Amino acid sequence: MPGKPFAGRPVSRPPRGGSPSLHHEAMAIHAAAVSLQGIQKSFRSPEGPVHAVRGVDVTIEPGEVVALLGPNGAGKSTTIDVLLGLTKADAGSVALLGRPPAAAIQEGLIGAMLQIGSLPRDLTVREIVTVIASLYREPVVVDGPTTEIKAMVGLRTIRATLPGADLAALARLPGVSSSDARGEAIVLRCTDSDTAVRALLQAYPAARDLEITGAGFEEAFMELTRGEGEEAAA
Predict the structure, then answer these.
(1) Residues 6+ apart with CB under 8 A from 75
(2) What is the C-alpha to C-alpha distance for residues 131 and 137, in angstroms, rounded to an integer?
């Protein structure tokens, strides 16, 4: 894949005696999203060496969208493999956000979608879930029947008919985490449905057609996988 030179930037290295972690944080702010400099890669074949990539120089800044185009055998996949650290280049340098590919991937900064793929046929469901979970910094693996998973979050939803209700006031009721309106109906998501029902009927005696249901599987999944920042925002 003959490379047309682009304006590149050198990959900086930590100063002597400096902190590598602080150096990486500073680099992440100013570094290019992708930097390929002088990449070369060849493969052996019975007919002799196959030069898949020849001197590719590319710099992609954060926020840029770039398509890598070329005919079959041009070296597109090889370049991507080098970029992701799946293949070692014969020559040249690679940096993702100022880091080596392995470091950027280890920090969870890089995502890639395979051209083709399928689940390993020789693994059990548990083994596959464990492998996928290992790709995340803080994986959440919940094992058990859907009824047990839904019960883990302890969420309940109260639905009632209450025209013209003040949603902000409803959200402040004891045991209520959020409120919503759907026409004349209100929907209260609760952490304590018993307390919430008593408070609702005390504050709004006109409320009727009450219905209390447990969290659905999707709601339970979203609750279990919410991060700390989302919980604080909620």
Answers:
(1) 1, 41, 52, 53, 54, 56
(2) 13
CATH code of residue 94: 3.40.50.300
Q: Is residue 57 part of a domain?
A: yes
Which DSSP state fits 114? -
Q: What's the pLDDT tens digit per position in 207-219?
A: 999 999 877 777 7
**Last residue within a domain, chosen from 82, 106, 130:** 106
Distance CA 68, CA 3 (A): 11
pLDDT tens for residues 69-99?
A: 888 888 898 999 999 998 999 999 999 999 9
Structure confidence at residue 13 (pLDDT): 41
Q: 46 and 97 share a domain?
A: yes
Q: Which of 91, 100, 88 is nearest to 37 (CA)?
A: 91
Choose among 70, 97, 78: nearest CA to 11.
Answer: 97
List, as one string, the DSSP characters of 116-167.
Answer: S----TTS-HHHHHHHHHTTSSS-----S-HHHHHHHHT-EEEEEE-TT--H
- Cα distance between residue 133 and residue 152, in whole Å: 20
* Gyration radius (Cα) of the chain, Å: 27
In a domain, 92, yes or no: yes
Are residue 177 and residue 101 in the same domain, yes or no?
Answer: no
What pTM was estimated for this model as a whole? 0.45
Range of the domain at 62: 20-106
> Would you say residue 24 lies in a domain?
yes
Q: Indicate left, alpha or beta for 97 from its phi (over 0: left) and psi (-120 to 50: alpha).
A: left
Asked whether residue 75 is domain-assigned, the answer is: yes
